[in-house]
Amino acid sequence: MTPQTDEADELRRLERAVANLPRMQRDIFLAKCRDGRSYAEIAARTRLSRNGVQKRLARALYHIRRQMDGEPLRWWQRWF
What we know:
- This protein is mainly alpha-helical.
- It has a domain at 17-69: Arc Repressor Mutant, subunit A.
- The chain has helices at 3-19, 23-34, 39-46, 50-68.
- α2 (23-34) crosses α4 and α3 (39-46) packs across α4 (50-68).
- The longest helix is centred in the C-terminal third of the chain and has 19 residues, at 50-68.
- The protein is flat, with a radius of gyration of 14 Å.
- It starts with a helix and ends in a 12-residue tail after the last helix.
């Protein structure tokens, strides 16, 4: 495999992992990582506290890391 193929595979795995997140976690992850929004901006848009945003982002990163490592989420982990 070429390095470009490896990167393309990893990007597809990342996209799948993000797509598998619960909606709120996915929205917060994308707002922070893709759009560069601050915790305060995301909190205002979602009507969550700043801590609530941080917790959901941490959960999103945990889920993404597990899936990127090849560990599928159990059915109950998709909701927490």
